[in-house]
Amino acid sequence: MSSPTFDLHELEFQRIQAILSKMQRELRAELVLLISRSGQPIVISGSTENIDCTALSSLAAANLAATDGLANIVGEREFSVLVHQGRQRSLFISDLMKRFSLVLVFDATASSGLVRYKCKHTTLLIEDVIRDFQRRIEKSEPASSLPQFSDAELEELLGS
Amino acid sequence: MTFINYVAREINCKIVYYGPGLGGKTTNLQYVYQITSAENKGKLISLATETERTLFFDFLPIEFGQIRGFRTRFHLYTVPGQVFYDSSRKLILKGVDGVVFVADSQEERMDANLESVSNLADNLREQGFDLAKIPYVLQLNKRDLPGALPVEELQRQLLVKGEPCIEAVAPQGVGVLPTLKAVARQVLVELRKSA
Fold it and tell me: Which of B59, B131, B113 is nearest to B88 (CA)?
């Protein structure tokens, strides 16, 4: 078997983007990301000028995975939230449906309780969007509409 | 987990380089980093010990180009090869789309190669994958060393399912890109099947 795919379409992108933007505004966060648990950035809200979001996503996913491993070792089912507090910036990472993760970069002076509360709320909203999408796919749409590329196109991409 | 972004028109895939310690997994990524143009690569991140042994993983995002208007982005990871980092290896296989096994061709490393292939199969199974079905390439590295076993002998012992087998000398770049392209091709073909 190969790995399952996750498709992001326009409607879901817009809905998730709106949810993340709202949270970013309310918390005055620098950056909010929805990432896959395999480490790929999916939707980003905020300023990406000073932060490499690809690297951030990869490290955040690895960090969360390592934390899951730690939880297992000490007999916990999971540690679903990770907080790294810095002098100027802090980082909040939380699990979302075991397939995704929410990552926030925010001012270290912000209330961590408020961040936690807003993240919990946002997580539920995004879960709704993803479940809606899954239901829609099951009802009417094909699981993926990736254009069928030919062998020749593949060879052109990869060379010999 | 392959992530297809229809809004940004991107295909994102995860490739993991697996194999015994000091086999050349990190060197593969370093060579890919060296020869890839700046606009087609991100930062090479290495989480290593003070003696430059991989502690958790190396990570390199690269882009091959477009197919049918979709940018193809591959996230390349290595695992730590040393036996006692097994927990880390399992974590890195999460959501993998394709695996490169970097074997050390030296005779004295054959046991380590075999142990690592077996460990790969076990760890993939734990993550819900089957080595017999996942896109997979065998790279025979260190072909330039005097103690390298004949290719036929290595293939006899290490081939799992008739996967592509590529000879390499990673520090010189020999076989590095053909290996990457071979696994990328399999991943994209699998993706096309599922579309």
Answer: B59
